[in-house]
């Protein structure tokens, strides 16, 4: 029994946007991290999405939801900063900083948050539609 | 002797020809004495109630998991709650209609 139409699709999208927000948080948190378990400075992570076919009960059209396809590191080189006091500085006194650009991350953050909001309003409207349909019987 | 009297309107051959070509109303419809329903109305109602209860239990479970920190999918919990709420409202509507029809029957003049 699925009373609220399309709610599974939206739930998948909310999941995906939440993961994106988590990754943006990780990028911002590690904007100054010069040491990682893999060695070298932190690399900015990028989330990509893919569509996923939902199995549909009943005779409706097949719906596609979204899920996180992969979280891949951004391979672009980080900024070189001259800081000989830094423990991770090279012999020439240069430190490789993470390739995180705060302006990019803020844009990503706002995009993810707006996309989340859009999906939430779909949920709200779908629920409102179901409730309005129940008003028929009154 | 009257030429008009020889015409019988009911046995006019063009009309009977048309009549045989027309589909018979109700020919393809099942009769009222069709096969008995597989489940009674009570059973169906029972199924509805247990369906609604399952949704409620699911919502409770998801909310508990979020509150206990086992899961951080807050939206799933809220969506499950909304789904349970809509299902419950539907059940209430069905019950209201049922009670209404019962009362209508009891009000009938004998």
Describe this structure in words.
Chain A is of the alpha+beta class and 138 residues long. Chain A is built from 2 helices and 4 strands. Chain A has helices spanning 7-29, 102-135; strands at 45-53, 64-73, 80-82, 94-96. Chain A has a two-stranded antiparallel ribbon with strand order 1-2. In chain A, strands 3-4 form a two-stranded antiparallel ribbon. In chain A, α1 (7-29) runs antiparallel to α2. Chain B has 110 residues and is mainly α. Helix content of chain B is 63%, strand content 0%. Chain B contains 3 helices and no strands. Chain B has helices at 13-21, 41-67, 74-106. The N and C termini of chain B lie far apart (61 Å). The model of chain B has no long low-confidence stretch (mean pLDDT 79).
Topology overview:
The complex is a heterodimer of chains A (138) and B (110).
Chain A: H1 7-29, E1 45-53, E2 64-73, E3 80-82, E4 94-96, H2 102-135
Antiparallel strand pairs in A: 1-2, 3-4
Helix pairs in contact in A: 1-2
Chain B: H1 13-21, H2 41-67, H3 74-106
The helix-and-strand class of chain B reads mainly alpha
Overall form of chain B: elongated
Beta-strand share of residues of chain A = 15-25%
Unreliable stretches of chain B, pLDDT < 50, 5 or more residues?
Answer: none
SSE topology string of chain A: HEEEEH
The biggest sheet of chain B, with number of strands, parallel, antiparallel or mixed sense and barrel status, is: none
Largest interface: A-B, 17 and 16 residues
How does the major sheet of chain A shape up?
2 strands, antiparallel
Q: Which radius of gyration of chain A do the C-alpha atoms yield?
A: 22 Å
Number of strands of chain A: 4
The number of E-state strands of chain B comes to: 0
* Overall morphology of chain A: elongated
How far the N terminus sits from the C terminus of chain B, by CA atoms, comes to 61 Å
Strand content of chain B: under 5%
Helicity level of chain A? 40-55%
Mean pLDDT of chain B: 79
